[in-house]
Design goal:
Elements: H1 3-12, H2 22-37, H3 71-77
Length: 93
């Protein structure tokens, strides 16, 4: 990681980098690249590739309604409502 690369990255990401923090950013980005590069050392010989990390079957449950329907109670206490909906003032002409 060098100053030119950091300048290019900051330009492409539309970020303004303070000159005083530039050396720290260069060092931090270098450390991140070294950390991610450790993945190359992982032994993946016996690991089959996945098309999706969530290939397991999702647990299912019965679709049972457990909540009480509060429609009537809520419409009764609304400032303005009809039989099915809250009524609100028009905001767009």
């Amino acid at each position: 990681m060098d100053k030119k690369t950091v300048t290019t990255i900051s330009y492409l990401s539309r970020l303004k980098i303070d000159g005083a923090k530039e050396e720290k950013i260069i060092k931090d980005l270098g450390n991140i690249i070294k950390f991610v590069d450790q993945l190359n050392d992982a032994d993946t010989v016996d690991v089959s590739p996945l098309t999706n990390p969530l290939e397991k079957t999702a647990k299912t449950r019965k679709d049972i309604v457990t909540a009480k329907n509060l429609k009537k109670e809520l419409l009764e206490i609304a400032p303005s409502a009809n039989e099915d909906y809250f009524l609100v003032p028009r905001v767009v002409e």
